[in-house]
């Protein structure tokens, strides 16, 4: 059970960090034993409810009822798993059951109750039941067992006094610890914190995860996610090649498979887990850039266009795959979480029509196929995602549009997410493909040399550097024509 907080304390948020483990073979065996015991607890609850369902009795889904059944089973039933860890499994089952019941009551008949067995179940221990000292963590076990001390591969990024729970789990065949901390909302000196009256619009996308615009001063932020998209594409290509090469080793239905097949599956799980960690880290970086920009502008309210309505529209095999790889729900969760920690409010509004509405004259125009929007009514020219962000900023949480048009001139800050991906620095679109070897350093782009007297080149004289002049690193002035 989470601890009870004092009424006088300020608002807080809960953040979770995943930390790896450095274990000996004996410690790894004990950790997997705890996870298997938690799976046995889950299977017992499923079996008990199956008996009730056959007899037509009321299912046992309440947390208190499940705890009584656990106490009646007696000690030593589930190996080294202690009572606190077993109760965390019961709470997970109770939450899943009541969540499914609420969704079915709301009309979602496709939602099912938890009835699938799991071999390894995550275990959570709350504050006061574990000991965290530096990089050493003591996990509680059943009475009479030897203490289980494990070593973390890095320090916990939160102060020790703020840690409220730890969760032991396995992901892609590797053991992890999820550390959850209770952090107070960031406080700022007087006159420097986010102002709720300052509103910025945020447009979510695939090529650009975030396109933000502040109508007050006309500034904007554009975060490029091309490295994330390239990571998805290359991972999909690798998966296809791997499955095509290993198709002959696939066991028949109902058979366990050979040792070689188990090694192939283990390697596939490792690659999948690494891909998920890379894309998740890139999304965190993009969200951190957006929140940092909002804090620097003292923006206290982010009006975000909710694009989840497009998920119900079938647009072909390729585009449906892009939408599945977009991870809209995770992006919104990261944005709301980091905004709450920074003291910024987030409002979700309908984004329908924002990419086909001119932010200067509010006239409907045809949606551009590229990234450049040109309005035939007022001759406005600008980036499509930033123009949509300006339009979203004018929409109140109720969905109405304010009569004041936004300012569309200012500085556009460009950022790139996913620099940790393999080879993201030397290549622009493909984060794994290295550029061709060139003789000498490329250096700074310079004007082309004057053409020779005879030849096939143009005789146009180059009088200035073709690069745009920038005021600061990563910025350029954006003036609509």
Structure description:
Keywords: DNA-binding. This is IS605 OrfB family transposase. Residues 469-481 have a biased composition (Polar residues). Residues 240-260, 414-481 are annotated as: Disordered. Pfam families: Cas12f1-like_TNB. The chain is α+β, with helices and mostly antiparallel strands and 481 residues long. It folds into two domains: 12-108 and 117-184, no CATH class; 195-249 and 268-433 and 469-478, no CATH class. It is built from eight helices and 16 strands. It has helices at 25-55, 63-73, 83-105, 226-245, 259-296, 317-326, 328-342, 384-393, and strands at residues 12-22, 123-126, 131-133, 136-139, 148-152, 163-171, 174-184, 195-204, 210-214, 219-224, 299-306, 345-350, 372-374, 381-383, 410-416, 475-478. The strands form three sheets. The chain has a seven-stranded antiparallel β-sheet. The protein has a seven-stranded mixed β-sheet with strand order 12-11-8-9-10-15-16. Helix 4 (226-245) runs antiparallel to helix 5 and helix 5 packs across helix 7 (328-342). The longest helix is centred in the middle third of the chain and has 38 residues, at 259-296. The chain is globular and about 75 Å long. The model is unreliable at 399-403, 427-432, 435-443, 452-471 and 473-481 (pLDDT under 50).
């Amino acid at each position: 059970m989470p601890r009870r907080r004092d009424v006088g304390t300020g608002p807080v948020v809960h953040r979770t960090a995943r930390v790896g483990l450095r274990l000996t073979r004996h410690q790894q065996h004990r950790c997997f034993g705890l996870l298997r015991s938690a799976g046995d607890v889950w299977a017992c609850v499923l079996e008990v409810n199956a008996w009730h369902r056959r007899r037509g009795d009321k299912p046992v889904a309440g947390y208190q009822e499940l705890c009584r059944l656990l106490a009646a089973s007696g000690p030593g039933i589930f190996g080294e798993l202690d009572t606190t860890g077993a109760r965390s499994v019961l709470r997970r089952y109770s939450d899943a059951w009541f969540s499914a019941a609420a969704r079915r009551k709301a009309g979602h008949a496709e939602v099912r109750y938890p009835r699938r067995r799991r071999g390894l179940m995550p275990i959570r221990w709350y504050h006061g039941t574990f000991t965290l000292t530096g990089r050493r963590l003591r996990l509680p076990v059943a009475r009479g067992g030897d203490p289980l001390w494990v070593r973390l591969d890095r320090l916990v990024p939160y102060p020790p006094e703020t840690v409220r729970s730890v969760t032991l789990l396995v992901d892609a065949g590797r053991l992890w610890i999820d550390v959850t901390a209770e952090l107070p909302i960031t406080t700022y000196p007087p006159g420097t914190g986010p102002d709720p009256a300052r509103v910025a619009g945020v447009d979510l996308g695939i090529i650009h995860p975030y396109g933000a615009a502040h109508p007050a001063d006309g500034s904007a932020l554009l975060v490029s996610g091309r490295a994330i998209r390239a990571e998805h594409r290359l991972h999909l290509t690798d998966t296809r090649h791997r499955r095509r090469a290993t198709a002959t080793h696939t066991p028949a239905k109902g058979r366990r498979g050979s040792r070689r097949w188990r090694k192939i599956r283990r390697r596939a799980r490792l690659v999948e887990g690494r891909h998920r960690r890379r894309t998740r880290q890139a999304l965190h970086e993009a969200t951190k850039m957006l929140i940092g920009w909002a804090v620097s502008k003292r923006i206290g309210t982010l009006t975000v266009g909710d694009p989840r309505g497009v998920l119900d529209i079938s647009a072909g095999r390729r585009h449906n795959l892009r939408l599945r790889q977009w991870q809209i729900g995770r992006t919104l969760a990261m944005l709301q979480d980091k905004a709450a920690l920074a003291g910024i409010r987030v409002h979700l509004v309908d984004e329908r029509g924002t990419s086909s509405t001119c932010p200067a004259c509010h006239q409907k125009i045809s949606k551009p196929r590229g990234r450049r929007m040109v309005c035939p009514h007022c001759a406005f020219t600008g980036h499509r995602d930033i123009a949509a962000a300006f339009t979203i900023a004018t929409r109140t949480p109720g969905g109405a549009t304010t009569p004041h048009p936004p300012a569309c001139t200012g500085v556009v800050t460009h950022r790139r997410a996913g620099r940790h991906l393999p080879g993201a620095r030397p290549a622009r679109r493909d984060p794994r493909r290295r550029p061709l070897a060139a003789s000498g350093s490329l250096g700074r782009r310079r004007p082309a040399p004057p053409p020779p007297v005879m030849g096939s080149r143009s005789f146009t004289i180059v009088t200035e550097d073709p690069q745009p002049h920038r005021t600061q690193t990563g910025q350029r002035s954006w003036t609509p024509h």
